[in-house]
Amino acid sequence: MSETRATVVAFIGLGHMGAPMAANLVRAGVDVRGVDLSAEAVEHARALGVPIAESGAAAVAEADVAITMLPVGRHVLAAYTGGETGVGLLAAARPGTLFIECSTIAVDDARRAHELALAAGHRNVDAPVSGGVMGAEAATLAFMVGGDDADVAEARPLLDLMGRRVVHCGGPGLGQAAKVCNNMILGVSMIAVSEAFVLGEKLGLSHEALFEVAANASGQCWALTTNCPVPGPVPGSPANNEYRPGFAGALMAKDLDLAAQAIAATGVHAEAGILAAEIYRRFAAGEGAMMDFSGIITEIRERSDGGAAA
Ligand code: NAD
């Protein structure tokens, strides 16, 4: 790379998150080459101003940095190695390319991706995000980053263009570790808050009274005070909008499943985390998949004898 050449970024995966993230890089003047297997995703990204490359291999062949934003770990590993798609990003990239893996994937898959990248003569950081599609569009994502200091330092200016918070969590895989741990707290706490509201209903306690007490006492948490699962106390929460996401039940189920995998791999005695994963797996098997994850309260209410009494 010549000293004066602007950073070229291959952006692989232009879905709900990837397209607006890539568009923010373009807006900031970065030379982006976007790629997606879906023609619809490509057209949407193009409409947002993202230049499209012929293939993943063509995109990374000219890139300094390759960002992946794909559904799950197997897609990332297949894209890296070629898998069945024949993309083979690692083989096609120039030596020393910095791979920034932004998808939410298992810690073990993130570490495998890191090893594969290093073995191919490249560098890799895992940088999963929170903030959802709105955060991707507004460039307000939070990045949880795992990797070596120098690589994270090099990734940071690009991440700053797509988000407003970048936390270096430690070595390879630890960005994903932070993501699954945080979302396990969120899943468990949303179930706890929802069960408490339904119990309050059965006991004759109003939503407002319980909120007033818990929001100012030791029950206070994000699931209660920002994403409150009952309509009323927090006017902006999805409960006031028929549980439209927000953060979809399917994504919570996915993240809790990753937490469950990590729990199994480490042998941690995390009964609540495992149970939360089961509860959200069931929720996401039906209409809950497309509802905000706070919609879990509707299932708890339905399963409580006699339904709601509020
Ligand atoms: P998405 O399904 O909308 O987009 C993924 C895109 O990857 C699709 O367009 C698909 O065609 C493309 N793709 C798959 N394999 C490919 C390959 N080999 N080469 C090129 N393109 C390929 O998913 P999303 O909502 O954008 O989420 C992406 C990641 O971000 C997921 O891991 C998700 O868990 C995580 N995440 C999503 C949200 C959210 O609110 N949507 C929030 C935080 C994190």
Summarize the helices and strands and which ones pair or pack.
Layout: E1 8-12, H1 18-27, E2 31-35, H2 39-47, H3 56-61, E3 65-68, H4 73-81, H5 89-92, E4 98-101, H6 107-119, E5 123-126, E6 129-130, H7 132-138, E7 141-146, H8 149-162, E8 163-170, H9 174-203, H10 207-214, H11 222-225, H12 249-266, H13 271-284, H14 296-303
Parallel strand pairs: 1-2, 1-3, 3-4, 4-5, 7-8
Antiparallel strand pairs: 6-7
Bound molecules: nicotinamide-adenine-dinucleotide (NAD).
Nicotinamide-adenine-dinucleotide (NAD) binds next to helix 4, strand 6, helix 7 and helix 12.
Level-1 CATH class name of the largest domain: Alpha Beta
Helical fraction equals 40-55%
Strand tally is: 8
Report the biggest beta sheet as strand number plus sense, adding barrel if it closes: 5 strands, parallel
What would you call the structural class?
A: alpha/beta
**N/C terminus separation:** 65 Å
CATH topology tier name of the largest domain: Rossmann fold
Describe the structure in your own words:
The chain has 310 residues and is α/β, with parallel strands linked by helices. It folds into two domains: 2-172, Rossmann fold; 177-302, N-(1-d-carboxylethyl)-l-norvaline Dehydrogenase, domain 2 (Orthogonal Bundle), CATH 1.10.1040. It is built from 14 helices and eight strands. It has helices at 18-27, 39-47, 56-61, 73-81, 89-92, 107-119, 132-138, 149-162, 174-203, 207-214, 222-225, 249-266, 271-284, 296-303; strands at 8-12, 31-35, 65-68, 98-101, 123-126, 129-130, 141-146, 163-170. The strands form two sheets. A five-stranded parallel β-sheet has the order 2-1-3-4-5, with helices on both faces. Strands 6-7-8 form a three-stranded mixed β-sheet. The longest helix has 30 residues, at 174-203. The relative contact order is 0.09. Residues 12-18, 35-38, 41, 56, 69-71, 75, 79, 85, 87, 103-104, 129-130, 132-133, 251, 254 line the site of nicotinamide-adenine-dinucleotide.
